[in-house]
Amino acid sequence: xxxxxxxxxxxxxxxxxxxxxxxxxxxxxxxxxxxxxxxxxxxxxxxxxxxxxxxxxxxxxxxxxxxxxxxxxxxxxxxxxxxxxxxxxxxxxxxxxxxxxxxxxxxxxxxxxxxxxxxxxxxxxxxxxxxxxxxxxxxxxxxxxxxxxxxxxxxxxxxxxxxxxxxxxxxxxxxxxxxxxxxxxxxxxxxxxxxxxxxxxxxxxxxxxxxxxxxxxxxxxxxxxxxxxxxxxxxxxxxxxx
Length: 242
Ligand SMILES: [Fe+2]
Ligand SMILES: [Fe+2]
Description:
This protein is mainly alpha-helical. The chain has 13 helices and no strands.
């Protein structure tokens, strides 16, 4: 089975446009109890932030296309070391957020994933480890790093990913987290555009016709896993579906 390029692109974009969850509004407008936020931070860290450079590395080692490997190597190097932009590994910078909230940081060494989070992690591991470089690359660089606004990354006429000033970041605006602890969101505003562009270039230009259907299947599984994760965290922080 093969898939033409425009169908492939639409299938991928339609997955990303469904990467939205009803709990997003509560996180964006301060509707989550302050003393429950640590659950969200712990799950996010253990589920994909801590190991994100490894996911990119899994795509790298499986990829036979040298130009794609160079993009992945650059992404991996920045995420793992911060050597290009951030100055520190991105997973370490993420931890500034819970540190700023006064969370017990020892808990981050041994977080237990909620069942719904584990489901998402299993999908990520499955498709980054042994389903070819194309699926690994799509899951790591398009799905995990991407937003519902991916169309805006590749189509000049589509709405762009909204980038609010850091002062309007929900953790600052609604919970008073000092801006200095938002080091990772600040860095991502700078480097992430390059990662989005490289991700789409790679997937649209280098994934062969015969590999496209498998990539779409991997992305749909990731979306399913992501929804389980979001449901689990919403429940754990005490939110009710409106
Ligand atoms: Fe990052
Ligand atoms: Fe990135």
